[in-house]
Design brief:
5% strand; single chain; mainly alpha; 2 strands; two-stranded antiparallel ribbon; 2 domains
Length: 87
């Protein structure tokens, strides 16, 4: 018996299809997944890798994410230190 799993009409075992699937899906965690020891930049990298980004493309998107979200001054700040700044 061969089991094939499809998501959005794409085969999840095919790397080309997984690339397409990642462009059509997002991450919706059911728990607070902020890791206190990671910085804003490190969190952006983790989520970029979950979406299948790597290398120069990951670096470009993380930089763009920092600028687009107006977090440039916070990128190296650890998450555990940031909650005191939220109003």
């Amino acid at each position: 018996m061969i089991l094939v799993i499809f998501a959005l009409g794409q085969d999840v075992t095919d790397s080309n299809d997984m690339t397409e699937i990642r462009t059509m899906t997002g991450v919706c965690p059911q728990e607070n997944i902020v890791i206190e020891e990671l910085s804003v930049q490190e969190h952006l990298c983790v989520f970029g890798m979950i979406k299948g980004l790597s290398g120069d493309h990951l670096e470009k998107e993380v930089g763009s994410g920092q600028t687009n979200r107006h977090v440039v001054g916070w990128v190296v700040q650890k998450s555990r230190c940031m909650s005191v700044h939220v109003t």
